[in-house]
Amino acid sequence: MIAAVCVSAAIGVHADLSAEQEELLRWVDTMQLQCRWDEGLAMCDMIIAADPECAEAYCERGIILLNQEEPERAEQEFMVAVAISPRLVRGYVGRAGARTGLGQAPEAKEDAQLAIELCTKTLELNQRDADAYYHRGLARRVIGQEADASWDLTRALEIRPEFAQARLERAHIYRNQGKLETAIEHCTRALEARPDYVSAWLTRARAYYQTANYEQALADCTSALEVNPQSARAAFNRGLVQTRAGRVAEGIADFTLAVQLRDDYEDAWFYRAEAYATLGEMEAAKADWRRVVELAPDGWAGRLAVDRLAVAEDDG
Fold first, then answer.
1. How far apart are CA 117 and CA 35, in angstroms?
2. Are the C-beta atoms of 184 and 207 separated by less than 8 Å?
3. Could you say which residues of the chain have pLDDT below 50?
4. Do residues 133 and 159 make contact, with C-beta atoms less than 8 angstroms apart?
5. Looking at domain 1-160, which CATH architecture does it have?
6. What architecture does CATH give domain 229-316?
7. CB contact burial 104-134 (16+ within 10 A = b; e otherwise)
8. What spatial distance separates the first Cα and last Cα of the chain, rounded to whole Å?
């Protein structure tokens, strides 16, 4: 299965931020859309160095860490954000996501419910606040209220049709429901608004992959890499498409790029091993399986790699 894509946040206008902070946070948002995590973190650090009380910067740093699969660090950033600004909805939504990743379901639900309450109060004052609908939709997704989340996201898009992040969230829901053509349509609309939206390219690629439209999936992964040549996830996803389409050597090249960009990418190491095995290059395959076991001995890839190595050793 093509790798899941990253979470993104929408930056609204905040009356308590300076014009300079607003501009820098919009650049952080762009870095997130392009999955340029290190650059986004550096910009957040710059904002916080100038203003240690900028809750939004801690929040955005948390979102980036969550996308980098570091929920513990992300949770700490969100805790700082909501301590500074107790009504910062994105902070509670983000912390709910981090706590879900940490297996803290009751605490995640509490955060999501608080975010829902805050958004609902905002909407009582302004029924055309697209950001409030969007964040309430995100919070509802955390606690499994997909139907209500869909309504909120649809309402956000009625108010702001070019809202790329809401489009992508809607696409995720449609893809999960098996409505792949509708998911593709929403990704396309998101990309019309933001052609630099790496996650939208990869989500659409995943939907095309699921419909066996491998050429279009390949094209979308390539477009994601054109936006961000340092995206290990885009390289990995393209490798999956290549191998599924029967272009195993090309898939190996993409998996190699993925591990060059991110050395601890156990999924890429595993699938490269599988590709090597398909070509009968067993020594290379065994080397990659061993790397997977080093990286994640208790994960699904690590357990499968152990099994593959045992079979390979028995076969001599």
1. 30
2. yes
3. 1-7, 11-15
4. yes
5. Alpha Horseshoe (1.25)
6. Alpha Horseshoe (1.25)
7. beebbbbbbbbbbebbeebbeeeeebbbbbb
8. 30
The greatest distance separating any two alpha carbons of the chain, rounded to the nearest whole angstrom, comes to 71
Looking at residue 9, its pLDDT comes to 53
Contact between 294 and 314 (Cβ < 8 Å): no
What is the reported pTM? 0.92
Predicted confidence at residue 17, as pLDDT, reads 72
Are 50 and 25 in contact by the 8 Å Cβ rule? The answer is: no
Map out the domains of the chain as residue ranges.
Answer: 1-160, 229-316
68, 279, 295, 309, 316 from 312: Cα distances, Å: 33, 14, 20, 5, 6
Q: pLDDT tens-digit profile of 299-315?
A: 999 999 999 999 998 87
DSSP 157-205: HHH-TT-HHHHHHHHHHHHHTT-HHHHHHHHHHHHHH-TT-HHHHHHHH
